Amino acid sequence: MKTYVVLAGNIGAGKSTLVKMMCDQLGWEPYFEPVAENPYLQDFYLDMKRWAFHSQVFFLTWRAQAHRALMDIPRPVVQDRSFYEDALVFARALHVQGAISARDWETYRALYRTLTTLLAPPDLVVYLRASVPTLRARIANRGRAFEAAITDAYLDGLNTLYEEWIAGFDLAPVLIVPADRVDFVKEAAQLESVIAAVQERLRGRQGELFA
To answer: Which positions are annotated as active-site residues?
Structure first.
């Protein structure tokens, strides 16, 4: 049977790393979303309030297409970041910040809800829960220049939205990994524990290790 797992989490939580490590261990197919050629992005950075809605609708369409394509891959797949969190965390953050108006947000949400009825949900969502200090340390370690301007306040706001999203997400089972204390990069035993917990949840068992 096809297996479709999504790894969710804030910027710097370790999603891409865990996707690669899980797939290396299990022989599954990793999916790292390619950079989208968003035709609104340059305009968005010049005038966020005018172009945020257009930009996010493009990203929603792009990620919905990717989600649909993954459903046709016959091998087990692990996806880095989901269609769901892009909408209910990152797009919602723009609404909270005032860049997307209430009217546009309601239109966007209606489109998102329609798409969720047309796309089969994943078998499991693995949420990497990490505090701002952990996120900040990991962002610094990977040394990406374009991430240097990300503020603690922005990361904290995204964490709040992540927690609200994950608390209300009921389309698939959720496994929460406490990334502050689970170091699957440096500790092989902890990586094995994460993989074992993922496999247990996929079998329908409610293990307590990362509850």
So the answer is: 80
